[in-house]
Amino acid sequence: MKKISILGSTGSIGTQTLDVAAMHPDSFEIDGLAAGSNTALLLEQVRRFRPRRVSVASKELADDIRPQLPAGVELFSGDEGLVQIAAGGDADYVVTAVMGSVGLRSTLAAIEAGRDIGLANKETLVTAGHLVTELARRKGVNLLPIDSEHSAIFQCLNGESIEDIASINLTASGGSFRDLTREQLRNVTVEDALRHPNWAMGAKITIDSATMVNKGLEVIEAHWLFGLPYEQIGVLLHPESIIHSFVEFRDSSIIAQLGNPDMRVPIQYALTYPQRWHSPAQRLSLAQAGQLTFREMDFARYPALRLAIECGKIGGTATTAFNAANEVAVARFLRRDIPFVRIEEILEEVLERHTAESHPSLEQIEDCDRAARTLAQSL
Fold first, then answer.
1. At 27, phi and psi to the nearest 5?
2. Residues of the chain with pLDDT > 90: what percent?
3. Worst-scoring range by mean pLDDT, 171-185, 217-231, 276-290?
4. What angle do CA 71, 77, 79 make, to 5 degrees?
5. Is the separation of the CB atoms in 177 and 188 below 8 Å?
6. Of 51, 89, 85, residue with least CA distance to 69
7. What Rg, from alpha-carbon coordinates, does the chain have?
8. H-helix or E-strand containing 234?
C-alpha cells in the first residue's frame, strides 16, 4: 500500500491522480490533500478518500470548512499548509500538482523528508532546478515526471545510456491558435484561448499552451530532469498529440512513446514505476488515426518559446523572472486586463530589465520572483 499526498488535489492533475487511486484502492492510500479555494470539491474528496491531513489556501477558508471535516482530520492553511501536507504525515510519495512557483518550498520540503516526487509542477524545476535536483540526489529521492512529454522521454530512456542520446524531442500540439497568424492573434478572446483542441487542462496551462510558454517551461524542465544541454533538446509541432515525445540516439535510431491524449496514463506510470498496470484509457488505433503530421517549430510565430529557451541558456534567475512574469501576464489576460499578444510583450519587457543572478539561493529566487511579478503587474 503506497501512501500518497497530493498538492493541488482539486486541479486537473490532482483530480485525475485521485481517479487513478480509486481504480486501485488496494494499492494506494491517500494520506494528505492540499487544495486552493475550491473547498466544495475538496470536501467531496475528503469524504471519499478519507485523508488524515488537509490544507486550503487561507486561514479563512480553513475556518469555513473545519466544521464539515470528519473527526480526526488535521487541517492546515496557506503556504505552511502546503509544506505540512508535503513533508508531514506518513506519505511516502508526494504528487506536486499545484500551479505555479508556489509549489517550490513544499516540493523541497517533501524531498528533504525523503519522499519520492511525482512532478507535475514544472515551475519547481524552472525556477530552482539546481536546488531541487541537487537535494534529490543528496536525499536519494526519485523525481518521476508526470507531464506527458517528460513521461514519454522517461519511458523512451528506460535501459538506455545517457551517452548514447543524440537528442530528446518534445512534441507540441500548437495550442488553441496553431492555425492563426500573428495578425489574427490580436483579436482572440479568453474563450477562444481556453478551447484546446486535444487536451482538457486548467485555464493557466491552456493559455500557456496557446502562447507556447508551456513548451518553453517543458524544455527547461527537461534540461534538469535528464541532465542534457539545451542544444540536445528539440521541439516539434505535432497537431494530433499522439506521439508524446521521442528520443533520437547516436546510431540514428528513434524511440517514441505513443498513445491517445489521456493524462491518467503518465500519472499512473509515475505512481507505479517500474511496473505497468491496466488503465481504462482508450487504446490507440494507428489505423483509425490514419496519419500523423509534423512541422518544424516557427520561433517567429511563437516568440515566447524562443525567449524561454534563451532564459534557460542564461540560467540562474532568468528562468525565475520568465516564469513569474508569465504567471502575472496570464492572470491579467484571464481577467481581461490585457489582450492575448500583450502576454508575450510583457515577458520581453520584464526580461529586458532583469539582470540574472547565477546559482541563486532560495532567498534570491524568491526575491527575483516577487520583483518580476511586481514589474509585470505594473506594465
1. -115, -25
2. 89
3. 171-185
4. 145
5. yes
6. 51
7. 20
8. strand 233-237
Q: Which three cell numbers stand for residue 203?
A: 485555464
Cβ count near 26 (within 10 Å) = 6
Q: Locate 96 and state its grid cell.
A: 506536486
pLDDT attached to residue 206? 86
- What does the buried/exposed string (b/e) look like for 42-62 if buried means 16 or more CB atoms within 10 Å of the residue's CB? bbebbeebebbbbbbbeeebb
Residues 6+ apart with CB under 8 A from 115: 5, 86, 87, 91, 92, 93, 94, 141
- Relative to beta strand 93-96, strand 74-77 is unpaired
Distances (CA, A) of 23 to 9, 12, 26, 269: 16, 17, 9, 13
Alpha helices in the chain (DSSP H): 12-23, 39-49, 59-65, 78-87, 104-112, 122-139, 148-156, 190-193, 203-211, 213-226, 264-272, 286-289, 303-314, 318-334, 342-352, 362-378
C-alpha cell, 323: 516564469
Q: How far apart are CA 233 and CA 175, in angstroms?
A: 20
Q: What does pTM read for this prediction?
A: 0.93
> Do residues 87 and 110 touch, judged by C-beta distance below 8 A?
yes
Cell reading at 349: 519587457
Decide: 46 and 67 in contact? Cβ < 8 Å. Answer: no
Q: Which residue has the cell 489505423?
A: 287
What is the average per-residue pLDDT within 177-206? 83
Task: Please tell me the distance from the alpha carbon of residue 192 to that of residue 203, in angstroms, as a whole number.
Answer: 12
